[in-house]
Design a protein that fits this description.
The protein has 743 residues and is α/β, with parallel strands linked by helices. It folds into four domains: 2-86, Alpha-Beta Plaits (2-Layer Sandwich), CATH 3.30.70; 184-362, DHBP synthase (Alpha-Beta Complex), CATH 3.90.870; 382-485 and 722-743, Nucleotidyltransferase, domain 5 (2-Layer Sandwich), CATH 3.30.420; 529-687, ATPase, nucleotide binding domain (Nucleotidyltransferase, domain 5). Helices cover 32% and strands 22% of the residues. It has 21 helices and 31 strands. Strands 6, 7, 8, 9, 10, 11, 12, 13, 14, 15 and 16 form an eleven-stranded mixed β-sheet that branches. It has a seven-stranded mixed β-sheet with strand order 28-29-25-24-23-30-31, sandwiched between helices. A six-stranded mixed β-sheet has the order 17-20-19-18-21-22, with helices on both faces. The radius of gyration is 27 Å and the shape is globular. Bound molecules: zinc ion (ZN) (2 copies). One zinc ion binds next to helix 3.
Length: 743
C-alpha cells in the first residue's frame, strides 16, 4: 500500500527530513520526503506493518529539536517507487514554522574538544541538532541559499557530509569547517588586526566586543572589579545588573543556588539567561548586581563562547552591546563604529547576522518557568491560539516592545524589540515586521494597538492605513495570560505593573477584572493617587513617596516626607498647593509606583537609574519567614472595590522609627500585598462564584510576591493561571491585543 503523510510542526532546520529518510530505509519503505514550506510531506510505499512502524517512529524517535504538532495521513494506490529520496524544496506557501537558534549540542561539543577531529576548536561547528537558524534566515524555505551561509561554498568533505544520509550533518544548512566556513578575526579599537590571544586579553582585564548569534556582546572578566567598573563607566550604565556567562554548571553552582528545573533550563537547547539566587557572601564584585541578590546566568551556547574560557577565566560579563535603549549592535561595521568608545578589542567573524536577537531571560518560580524576555531560542515559534476570525497585526506597547502577527490558530510574536523611544528601534521594528510578514505570509486585515495616545506604537498604527482596534493595556495583559494557558473560561484576573493607559484616562496598574477575552469588566483597583510630574515620576521613587504621604496622610505625611526623604519645606508646600488647586492632575493606581514609594521611604532606593530598580532592590532585601502585615482596607467606592493602604504609612514609619530591619519591613510590605490581594480575590469569588484566577503584569516577575501569592491562593483553593510562553510584562501584551482584536 501507499500513504501520503503530512507533518506539521517545528520540522525545518532541525534535521527532520534526514531523520525521515533514515527511518524509511530502516523500515524498508520506498517513496520520498519533501519540504512544502508550511509542512513536510512524506510518501511511503510498503506493507501495512512497515508503514505503521514508520509512523510510530516519526512520533517517538524524531530529533530533539523537532516538535510535531499534527500529522495527517491519506491512503493512495502504489506508484512503484524503487527507493526513498529527499526531494528538493518547493516554493514556500501557507503558514510556516521556522526553527529558533539552537545551543551547541553535546555531540558537536565533543568533536570541538577532540584533537583528532577536523573541527577541533572550530568556532562555527554545528549539525542538524544545533547552530544558528532564525538569525541567519533571509527568506523561506530554510535552505542554505536562503541564509547568510549562501556565500560560503562547502568543501569536498563538508559537501559529502551534507549529502550523506548517515551523517549528523546531512542537510545541515549552516554546515562548515575551517577549510570552507566562516572565520574569526580580532581587531583593536582602530580596526587593526591583532595577533594576541583573545582570552588572554580578557584575563588581562580588557573589554571585548564579541559577535555572537543574534548580535554583539560586551564581554569582560566578571571577577575583575576594575574591568566591571570600566565597563559600567564606558557604557554609562550605573546600576542595572549585568548578565553573566559561566564556563560550566559547576562554576554556576559556586556562585548561585540552583534547582533541578533551573539546571534543566540552563542546559536546554534554548540556553536562556536564568535568574538565580546568589550564594552570599560572594567573591564576585558587588558592582555586577548592585543592591540585588540575584544573578542572571547562562552557559556557553555557541562554540565561539567555549573559546573565550581558557586558563583561570570561568565567569564573564556578557551584556548586550547596545547604546542605552537602542537595539543590539549586529554588524561588524556598526560594532567598530558605535562601540569604539566602549570596547578595547573586537572579536569579529564573517558569517552575517540577518536578524538581531537578544538573549532570552527566564526565572523559575515554584517549579514554573516564567519568561521575562522572549527572544533567542524561543522566537519565532508561534503560540497556539483559538482560531481568529481576522488576520491581525498587534503592535504591543512602547516599553519592552514585541509585536504579534496572528492568523488562524497561530500567533507569531517578534523577538524582544526593546523600548520604542528611539529612531533605531523604530527602524528595526519596521524591518522585522516586513520580514516576519513575508515569512509567515500574513497580510493583516486589522491593526491592534494600545489606548495610550502618546505611544509611538499608537502613532505607528495610525500610519498603516488599516482598520484600527484600540485595546486597553491591562485587558491585553490579562488576555495574553489566558491565551498563554489556552484557557477559554471566565476568570478573575489581576494585573499589576508600572503604568498603562486606562479607559478613564487615568494611569492604571493594580487592576482586578472578571471575564473572558470576549469581554472584561474592571471590578477593583488600588486607590488612586495624583501623579504630579506624569511619566517622569518613574525615575523618582522619592517623589512618589511624597505624593502618597501627602495624599493619604495630609500634614502629618508632609512632616515625615521632610524628615525621611529630605524634601525642603518649600518643595513640599509647592506640591501641596498643586494638589489642592489643580483639578486636572492624572491619577494613578500603579503597583510599580507603590513599590517605588515604599522603597524610597525605607531608604532602599530614591532614584531609579533603570526601570524597576527600586522594586527589585526592595524585593532583594526581604527576609524569609515574616508573618506580620500592615493594615489595609478594601471598600466599595462608586460601584467598584477600592484597595487602600492609607493606614499602612503610619505603621510603616513607626517600624522605621523603631529601627526595625529594612529586610523585615520589605518582607512585611510584600506580605501585606499578598494578604490584600488574596482578601480581594475571596471577596470577588463570593460575589461572582468564579474560582479561577489569572495573574499578569510586570510586577509578577517579583519572585517573592508571586511565590507567596501562589501559596496563599492555592491554600484558598483557587485555580491559578500564570504566564508560561510569553512574558507577564509588556513583552507579552501584543499577544493579548491580537486575540482581543481578531476574535
Ligand atoms: Zn550539533
Ligand atoms: Zn568544509
Amino acid at each position: 500500500m501507499a500513504q501520503k503523510i503530512k507533518v506539521c510542526g517545528v520540522i525545518q532546520g532541525v534535521g527532520f527530513r534526514p531523520f525521515v529518510h533514515r527511518l524509511a530505509e530502516r523500515h524498508g519503505l520506498r517513496g520520498w520526503v519533501r519540504n512544502e514550506g508550511s509542512h513536510v510531506e512524506i510518501w511511503v510505499e510498503g506493507t501495512n506493518e512497515q508503514i505503521q512502524a514508520f509512523v510510530r517512529g516519526l512520533h517517538e524517535k524524531h530529533p530533539p529539536a523537532a516538535q510535531i504538532k499534527e500529522t495527517y495521513t491519506e491512503v493512495y494506490p502504489v506508484r512503484g517507487y524503487s527507493d526513498f529520496v529527499i526531494q528538493e524544496s518547493k516554493e514556500a506557501s501557507g503558514d510556516i514554522f521556522i526553527s529558533p537558534d539552537l545551543a551547541l549540542c553535546p555531540e558537536c561539543l565533543q568533536e570541538f574538544r577532540s584533537h583528532r577531529d577536523r573541527r577541533f576548536r572550530y568556532p562555527f561547528i554545528n549539525c542538524t541538532n544545533c547552530g544558528p537558524r532564525y538569525t541567519i534566515i533571509r527568506q523561506v524555505p530554510y535552505d542554505r541559499g536562503n541564509t547568510t551561509m549562501a556565500e560560503f561554498t562547502m568543501c569536498q568533505e563538508c559537501s559529502e557530509e551534507y549529502h550523506d544520509i548517515k551523517s549528523r550533518r546531512y542537510h545541515a544548512q549552516p554546515n562548515a569547517c575551517p577549510q570552507c566556513g566562516p572565520t574569526l578575526s580580532l581587531v583593536d579599537a582602530k580596526g587593526c588586526i591583532c595577533r594576541e590571544d583573545f582570552s588572554h586579553l580578557l584575563a588581562k582585564g580588557f573589554i571585548l566586543a564579541v559577535k555572537g548569534l543574534g548580535g554583539f556582546h560586551l564581554v569582560c572578566d566578571a571577577r575583575n572589579p576594575e574591568a566591571v567598573n570600566t565597563l559600567r563607566q564606558r557604557k554609562g550604565r550605573e546600576a542595572k545588573p549585568f548578565a553573566l556567562m559561566a564556563k560550566d554548571l559547576d562554576v554556576i553552582k559556586k556562585y548561585a543556588y540552583i534547582s533541578k528545573e533551573e539546571e534543566e533550563l540552563l542546559q536546554s537547547p534554548q540556553a536562556p539567561i536564568v535568574l538565580l539566587e546568589q550564594i552570599l557572601p560572594s567573591s564576585l564584585p558587588p558592582s555586577l548586581n548592585p543592591g540585588l541578590k540575584t544573578l542572571g546566568m547562562m552557559l556557553p551556547y555557541t562554540p565561539l563562547h567555549h573559546l573565550l574560557f581558557t586558563g583561570n577565566l570561568d565567569i564573564l560579563v556578557m551584556t548586550s552591546a547596545n547604546l542605552s535603549h537602542e537595539p543590539i549592535v549586529y554588524t561588524n561595521e556598526e560594532a567598530l563604529q558605535r562601540l569604539k568608545s566602549i570596547a578595547d578589542y573586537f572579536l569579529l567573524h564573517n558569517r552575517p547576522i540577518y536578524h538581531r536577537c537578544d538573549d532570552s531571560i527566564t526565572a523559575v518560580v515554584k517549579k514554573h518557568t516564567q519568561i521575562s524576555r522572549r527572544a533567542r531560542g524561543y522566537v519565532p515559534l508561534p503560540v497556539k491560539i483559538t482560531p481568529l476570525k481576522r488576520r491581525v497585526l498587534a503592535l504591543g506597547g512602547d516599553l519592552k516592545n514585541t509585536f504579534c502577527l496572528a492568523a488562524g490558530d497561530k500567533a507569531f510574536l517578534s523577538q524582544h524589540m526593546g523600548d520604542m523611544d528611539n529612531l533605531e528601534a523604530q527602524l528595526e521594528f519596521r524591518k522585522t515586521l516586513s520580514h516576519l510578514q513575508s515569512y509567515f505570509n500574513i497580510a493583516p486585515e486589522i491593526v491592534a494597538h494600545d489606548l495610550h495616545p502618546g505611544y509611538t506604537t499608537t502613532q505607528l498604527a495610525q500610519s498603516l492605513n488599516l482598520p484600527l482596534v484600540g485595546v486597553q493595556h491591562h485587558e491585553a495583559h490579562l488576555a495574553s495570560c489566558l491565551v498563554d494557558n489556552n484557557y477559554t473560561g471566565e476568570v478573575l484576573g489581576l494585573v499589576c505593573d508600572g503604568t498603562g493607559y486606562g479607559s478613564d484616562s487615568n494611569l492604571w496598574g493594580f487592576e482586578f477584572f472578571r471575564g473572558t477575552i470576549d469581554c472584561f469588566q474592571r471590578l477593583a483597583h488600588l486607590a488612586y493617587v495624583p501623579l504630579i510630574g506624569g511619566d517622569k515620576t518613574v525615575e523618582r521613587p522619592d517623589r512618589m513617596a511624597l505624593l502618597f504621604l501627602l495624599h493619604e496622610w495630609g500634614q502629618e505625611g508632609a512632616k515625615w516626607a521632610e524628615k525621611l526623604l529630605g524634601f525642603a519645606p518649600s518643595e513640599i508646600a509647592l506640591y501641596q498647593r498643586i494638589l489642592q488647586n489643580s483639578r486636572d492632575i492624572p491619577l494613578t493606581s500603579s503597583c510599580g509606583r507603590l513599590f517605588d514609594a515604599v522603597s524610597a521611604l525605607t531608604g532602599v532606593c530614591r532614584r531609579n537609574s533603570y526601570e524597576g530598580q527600586a522594586a527589585m532592590e526592595l524585593e532583594s532585601l526581604c527576609i524569609p519567614g515574616v508573618k506580620e502585615t500592615y493594615s489595609f482596607a478594601v471598600r466599595q467606592e462608586g460601584g467598584i472595590e477600592t484597595l487602600s493602604l492609607r493606614e499602612m504609612w503610619p505603621e510603616l514609619i513607626a517600624d522605621i522609627c523603631k529601627k526595625r530591619d529594612t529586610g523585615f519591613i520589605a518582607a512585611k510590605f510584600h506580605r501585606t500585598l499578598q494578604e490584600m490581594i488574596t482578601h480581594t480575590f475571596l471577596l470577588l469569588r463570593e460575589e461572582t462564584n468564579i474560582t479561577t484566577v489569572a495573574l499578569s503584569g510586570g510586577v509578577m516577575q517579583n519572585k517573592v510576591l508571586l511565590s507567596g501569592l501562589l501559596t496563599e491562593l492555592e491554600r484558598k483553593d483557587f485555580e491559578i493561571l500564570i504566564h508560561r510562553q510569553v512574558p507577564p510584562n509588556d513583552g507579552g501584551i501584543s499577544l493579548g491585543q491580537a486575540v482581543i482584536a481578531g476574535r
